[in-house]
Amino acid sequence: MKGLILCSGYKGKHNPFIKDTPVHFLSIRGKPVIEHILTNIQSLEKIDRIFILTNSRYLEQFKKWLDDFFYPIPIEFIDDDRTNLKEKSGAINSISFAIEKANIYDDLIVIGGDNIFTPDLSEFINFAESIYPHNLLGVYYLNGRFKAKKLGVVKLGVKGEIIEFTEKPSKLNGSKLVSMCVYFFPKDKLYLIRKYLKNNPDRLSIGDYIHWLSKQELVYAYRFEGEWFDISDIDSYVEAISVF
Question: Burial, 166: exposed, middle or buried (Cβ in 10 Å; 0-12, 13-18, 19+)?
Answer without folding.
Answer: middle
